[in-house]
Design goal:
single chain, alpha+beta, five-stranded antiparallel beta sheet, 5 helices, 33% strand, elongated
Amino acid sequence: MTNNGSLAARIGGMLLLGMSTLYGATVGTESGGLVMSDSEGSTTYSCAPEGYVIISFGQGNVSPSTPPDYAEAVLVADGGKADSPFTGDYVADGVKGVTFRVRGDGHTPGSAMVILRSRSGRIWSNDRFQFPAEAGVWSTVTLSFERSAGWTRGGADLDAKWDADIRSVTLIGIQMSRSGTDAQSYTIDDFMLLDADHMPDALTPLERALRDRFGVTRREDVAPADQLVDTDFDGMTDLFEILSKYDSDFANAIFEAQILSVTDAGVTIRWTCVEGSKYTVLRGSQLTGGLDPLPDFAGLDMPATETGYMTLVDTDAKGSGPYYYRILKMD
């Protein structure tokens, strides 16, 4: 991936924009064209009648004595015109994000990022998107203009710099490079800015679940009293249920099984479970030996209908034992 220093030099050297006037940014306006402002190596640019642009990278050289040549393209909305609806004060103009569609030919770029430059001359980049690995498949990308959404550059005091730069945007576009040495092509379409009404919910499933239940999006912000609430009285708190369902590391960390009782009816065991997952119970007579499914395949691929605990009565375990159990999460 091109670093911010060289990227800034390349963009700054190619585009001499008028910096005295910034026009108001306009949401919902498709770019008049993502124009290739700079390129390196075997790179070609074309614009289809339908309006989308295609970047093609030629075959890289393959030689034991020569490293592969580098191929890169920089595309800028409206060619970087100062009166573009993509320039201006994104905060005052209600701009919350940028969206576009991408597709590839079965390859994925060596690097791909959205780039943004402000009146200060600082360049920001965001590489939190991917081209589909399957040829000919379109994917819609939406990036928020919250800095935490992936906007970065070198240096210190980035939050303060971002807050200033997002209010004086002079350029936005896409930079990408070839992966490997194969010839490859990529298509980009429908590049436009979005307001709050058209931004998708940027929260992760975990953040959304915490917000819907507790009104906060971080585990550490859940009030101490709320952390103890067990709405369905199943022995697992609401917070633990949410974390178990949406945080796999947490679910794995708390996964446990225990024997609740041993009676004439058999052995009752219980384990933590996550809604939508399946579990299989194995049993053996010694720890060092093999563990096998229960007779008649009882306890095989048991689906969890909710997050919490599952129980099983091993009705075959009525002898003197001992009995050892293992619970397998099947998906």
